Amino acid sequence: MLYWLTLLSDGGDFFNLFRYITFRAGGAFMTALIFGFLFGKPLISVLRRTQGKGQPIRDDGPEGHFVKAGTPTMGGLLIVGALLTSTLLWARLDNPFVWLVLFVTMSFAVIGFADDYAKVSKQTTSGVSGKVRLLIGFIIAAIAGYWAAQYHPEELQYQLALPVFKDTLINLGFIFVPFAIIVIVGAANAVNLTDGLDGLAIMPVMIAAGTLGVIAYAVGRVDFTEYLDVHYVPGTGEILIFCAGLFGGGLGFLWYNAPPAAVFMGDTGSLALGGALGAIAVATKHELVLAIVGGLFVVEALSVIIQVLYFKRTGKRVFLMAPIHHHYEKKGWAEPQIVIRFWIISLILAMIGLATLKVR
């Protein structure tokens, strides 16, 4: 919205700053951060009053989690609110990729909110049916995949770009939309599975968002793409503003989610943020790089899949408990130890993901 202040500029005054994506990204970050600090405590107070007993704790979970009983959930509303406000304020609202990412984020936030509401109101760990959530998620992701393809350059439409092998494109054709569904829904649910310890999910999400924001900015500039020899996708640079808002909103939320958490993100936040990461990857043609940058989420999801399949086949478990962060809890690792080590892993993977921009 503030971009249109450039209409008041003669090219050499303060209003000219609003032309620059980097300036507006900084504004989005600060707006989201301030939003989080301003509305964090009031939101938590409202959630405590309305939710009563807070988020239900699984009976079969680690014993140390029972002390968290009564902690309110739906804290993702704080992140989503900060993200929406900062993006609408600082991004160019005539950019289709901005609206694509917002559409996916808000749609998955609604799914997550419905699930959280069902759990809290019924005081059960089972919310909205998993099949219903997946079906709605598939529809949203299908729309997003087709939407993205229509705004990709003609030579990139329905193509899969490979990191490192930058001259190689794989024509997915009609399979591209199902592929986009897997990326977006997979990312949403992987982040959801990771959100099991105080602060565990939000920092890796912020790291991944920051990394994808840099990639989006680079991919959206023809001079950068020529230097890096990556595919140019006009308009994706504006996604950096969304990512900056996510980073700022995430920091604001982490202030209250740091151990011991005063509020949980809930499915409202985890599904929304995971879906956002998937949508950014599809928009920027970096779907495979997301698997590297978000490698922690991939491992968390795989640990659940492996555990379920192996148990059905043999009646035995590979991990003491899945997702894998609970395995390390069962092995005696302290919660902060797991969280910080997983943060470090996320940062390392993000650096590897960024390196793919140059390596060929």
UniProtKB/TrEMBL annotation:
Full protein name: Phospho-N-acetylmuramoyl-pentapeptide-transferase
One Pfam family from the record: MraY_sig1
GO biological process: cell division; cell wall organization; peptidoglycan biosynthetic process; regulation of cell shape
Example of a GO cellular component annotation carried by this entry: plasma membrane
NCBIfam families named among the record's database cross-references: mraY
Chief place of localization: membrane
E.C. numbers: 2.7.8.13
Membrane topology: Multi-pass membrane protein
Cofactor: Mg(2+)
Lineage of the organism: Bacteria, Pseudomonadati, Pseudomonadota, Alphaproteobacteria, Rhodobacterales
Residue ranges of the TM segments: 20-39, 74-91, 97-118, 130-149, 169-188, 200-219, 239-256, 263-282, 288-311, 338-357
Protein family membership: Belongs to the glycosyltransferase 4 family. MraY subfamily.
Gene that encodes the chain: mraY
Stated role: Catalyzes the initial step of the lipid cycle reactions in the biosynthesis of the cell wall peptidoglycan: transfers peptidoglycan precursor phospho-MurNAc-pentapeptide from UDP-MurNAc-pentapeptide onto the lipid carrier undecaprenyl phosphate, yielding undecaprenyl-pyrophosphoryl-MurNAc-pentapeptide, known as lipid I.
Keywords, ordered alphabetically: Cell cycle, Cell division, Cell membrane, Cell shape, Cell wall biogenesis/degradation, Magnesium, Membrane, Metal-binding, Peptidoglycan synthesis, Transferase, Transmembrane, Transmembrane helix
Organism encoding this protein: Sulfitobacter aestuariivivens
Binding site for Mg(2+): 192, 267
